[in-house]
């Protein structure tokens, strides 16, 4: 059974930084494309960032480009999201997700493409 566990969330001031990590167990980590999504109160879950199976390709939501960086360590079975210059509108529950290779796509940017999800972790940016 594949399990994803997020860590590193919390409360930070406007302009601050946080680093989220996601530890994956129960599967072959290098066979999963990885992604981060978020859901703010009253809003739908949205894509934030994604990284390919090997880590060679990434994709970002436009509003986080230049501020967030996704990375993966296939030796440690972890994926990270470094978040800098945080804004109050980044406040949300952040979810880590893993997707199996079922199409030609190597960077997965939509929820249905992911097969395993973490429980989510709160990130709050104060104004």
SSE order and pairing:
Blueprint lengths: L2 E5 L2 E4 L4 E8 L6 E8 L6 E6 L6 E3 L7 E6 L4 E6 L8 E9 L15 E2 L3 E6 L1
How would you sum up this structure, described in words?
The structure is a single chain. With 127 residues, the chain is mostly beta strands. Helix content is 0%, strand content 50%. The protein is built from no helices and eleven strands. It has strands spanning 3-7, 10-13, 18-25, 32-39, 46-51, 58-60, 68-73, 78-83, 92-100, 116-117, 121-126. The strands form two sheets. Strands 2, 4, 5, 6, 9, 10 and 11 form a seven-stranded mixed sheet that branches. Strands 1-3-8-7 form a four-stranded antiparallel sheet, with no helix packed on it. A hairpin with a 6-residue loop joins strand 5 and strand 6 (58-60). The chain starts with a strand and ends with a strand. The mean pLDDT is 96.
How would you describe the shape?
globular
Distance between the termini: 40 Å
Query: How many beta-strand runs?
Result: 11
Beta-strand content bin: over 45%
Based on helices, strands and strand pairing, what is the structural class? mainly beta
For the sheet with most strands, the description reads:
7 strands, mixed
What is the percent of helical residues?
A: under 10%
Q: Number of helix segments?
A: 0
Radius of gyration: 14 Å
The poorly predicted ranges are: none
List the helices and strands in order: EEEEEEEEEEE
Overall mean confidence score, pLDDT: 96
